[in-house]
Design a protein that fits this description.
This protein has about 325 residues and is an alpha+beta fold. It has one domain: Glucose Permease (Domain IIA) (Distorted Sandwich). The protein is about 15% helix and about 20% strand. The chain is built from four helices and twelve strands. The radius of gyration is 19 Å and the shape is globular. Pfam families: Peptidase_M23. This is Peptidase M23. It comes from Natrinema ejinorense. One of its GO terms (molecular function) is metalloendopeptidase activity.
Length: about 325
């Protein structure tokens, strides 16, 4: 079921990324940062402190997010008009976040978790061929949404170098002109997806629920400098052994379930918000192998019973399919 080429109801995925697909992400080099610690503790190993410089590679995903590489498939999403007018606002916001100790600590936990994940899988990380999805998942939204970030391959990945988010998705609602907002786009309420229902993608048990994080009052590329969790308000749901979904950036006060609650497929669990590390209202969704956001590995996910609308307007209905940035998607359930 994990291989789209062997499942009759799962369209094939273009994985012709060549040598690039086999090279490690520069973000992984940040793991060498920890070799500097012995240099700080043992005088004779002081030269090892130079390894602290590798910590700068944690900024790699920020740089690529602002300055896309020539290999990025811009054509798939160039019809979408987001609320961020340029890369300047996210850049200024990211610089200010370097002074936020809570976010910096989460960054350290994330990189440390990479090391544990590599060891756990002996460098053979789950991918389209090595992951056997146990559960059928529906889209975690109602109505038609637009995929603005994410896909099942390295070239379409949300954040290839951040292992837990490797196969994550960012979803928004766009109008007929491809705009995710109306008006100036400076306030969360001007975004079409803000406050829209979020649903459980499959039956399961809530293993983590966090509410009470403010929705940042600015949008259009600005990040909350006082955020205390990258996820903002979020839910983590266990669906099967080794399969946990994460729904993040939820609206403050909108969670309808708590830790320990059992949820049913399609049940409304929260509403879309602008909390945490969010430049504009959207839903961040990912499937991971462990409950911990920082020590888990992201898993490629195909969805069941959905309609896809491509940028050229072609519309298809699938029993199962992967989705990718640039597509409009809707559940047929």
């Amino acid at each position: 079921m994990s291989d789209p080429n062997t499942h009759p109801n799962l369209p094939s995925v273009d994985r012709s990324n060549g040598l690039r697909s086999r090279l490690p992400s520069p973000t992984s080099l940040a793991l060498l940062f920890f070799l500097g610690i012995p240099g700080s503790l043992i005088p004779s190993l002081k030269r090892l402190e130079w390894f602290y410089l590798f910590g700068l590679f944690t900024l790699w995903h920020m740089v690529t997010g602002i300055v896309p590489s020539p290999s990025d498939d811009a054509e798939a999403t160039n019809w979408i008009s987001m609320g961020t007018p340029s890369g300047l606002r996210p850049l200024v916001s990211m610089v200010s976040l370097q002074l936020n100790p809570l976010i910096q600590w989460q960054g350290v936990k994330q990189i440390a978790g990479h090391g544990l994940t590599f060891l756990r899988y002996r460098l053979r990380l789950p991918d389209l061929d090595r992951f056997d999805q146990q559960v059928d998942y529906r889209l975690p939204v109602e109505g038609e949404w637009t995929v603005v970030n994410g896909g099942p391959t390295r070239d379409t990945s949300h954040s290839w170098g951040i292992l837990a988010q490797r196969y994550a998705y960012d979803l928004v609602v766009t109008d007929d002109d491809g705009r995710s907002y109306e008006g100036s786009g400076d306030r969360p309420a001007e975004y079409h997806c803000f406050g829209e229902p979020i649903v459980a993608p499959a039956d399961g048990v809530v293993v983590a629920a966090s509410d009470g994080h403010r929705d940042y009052h600015r949008a259009g590329g600005w990040l909350d400098p006082r955020q205390r969790d990258l996820r903002g308000n979020f839910l983590t749901i266990e669906h099967a052994t080794g399969e946990y979904s994460v729904l993040a950036h939820l609206r403050n006060g909108s969670l309808e379930v708590s830790k320990g609650d059992r949820v049913e497929r399609g049940e409304r669990v929260a509403r879309c918000g602008n909390s945490g590390n969010s430049s504009e209202p959207h839903l961040h969704f990912q499937l991971q192998d462990r409950p911990s956001f920082f020590r888990s590995m992201g898993l490629p996910i195909h969805f069941s019973n959905l309609r896809l609308r491509e940028p050229d307007g072609e519309e298809t209905v699938h029993e199962r399919a992967y989705i990718a940035a640039g597509q409009r998607v809707a559940s047929t359930e």
